[in-house]
Amino acid sequence: MKSVLLASSLIALSMALAPVQAADLKVKITGSLSSVTVKHKGKDVVIQRNQNVENTVNPAFAKTSRECPPFCINPMELAAGVDTIGEVEMLDYLGKMSSGDSSILVVDSRTPDWVERGTIPGSINIPWNKLNPQQGASPFDISDIMIKQFGVKDLEGLWDYSGAKTLVMFCNGAWCGQSPNNIQNLLKFGYPPSKIKWYRGGMQDWESLGLTTVKP
Fold first, then answer.
1. Which pLDDT tens digit goes with each residue over 37-73?
2. Tens digit of pLDDT for each residue in 177-210?
3. Is 38 helix (H, G, I), strand (E, B) or coil?
4. How far is 187 from 2, CA to CA, in rounded Å?
5. 216 CB burial (10 A radius; 0-12, 13-18, 19+)
6. 27 near 4, Cβ under 8 Å?
7. What CA–CA distances, in Å, run from 209 to 46, 104, 138, 197?
């Protein structure tokens, strides 16, 4: 049932958000979805796949091996209750955001130097160290992010997550620890796992599928 609802949602997104010329695209996202238009810093950005069938992976994401630790392969299930998602689900969340759903926030957990190389349109950057007390994040800074960006309420020192946003978090890929670090810290703060989604493939998978990226 969940997959049927998602498919129906994506078909609706394709009809409502994709530009007319998308019907002519040869390299589609799915059989029924050619592109998704999202808002990024107030401007429309069309997400679609690279139409050049000879295109190869961005060299920045072509490496297959990094020392482990710290670059160890993460499990598919990061934490109990936190859903792991793929590209189609990510596009569904982005489409809902662009349709006016303010209960969703897509978060790039990478450091700014990586974001400068390209990020997913519609995302905002909250580097992993900004939510990590061990990396110098102060309680005030963490509280500021929680309240102003995540929709959490501070009730006399207690967090109220009843109106908190659903956070869709990603970083550089299955071997990257930046979004897992953000997620684990949020769980320690009491953030509901049902309101956290993890795009495990991150930028490496996004780039390998030729999907649109934007730079600051």
1. 999 999 999 999 999 999 999 998 999 999 999 999 9
2. 999 999 999 999 999 999 999 999 999 999 999 9
3. strand
4. 25
5. exposed
6. no
7. 15, 24, 38, 20
Q: Is 130 within 8 Å of 111 (Cβ atoms)? A: no
Which segments of 17-82 are extended strands (E)?
Answer: 36-40, 43-47
What are 21's two structure tokens?
A: 């010329």
Sequence spans of domains, the chain = 38-208
**pTM here?**
0.89
The CATH number of domain 38-208, selected from 3.10.20.90, 3.90.1210.10, 3.20.20.70, 3.40.250.10:
3.40.250.10
Structure tokens at 35: 């592109």
Write out the two tokens for 140: 């005030």
Q: For residue 172, which of 134, 199, 146 has the smallest C-alpha distance? A: 199
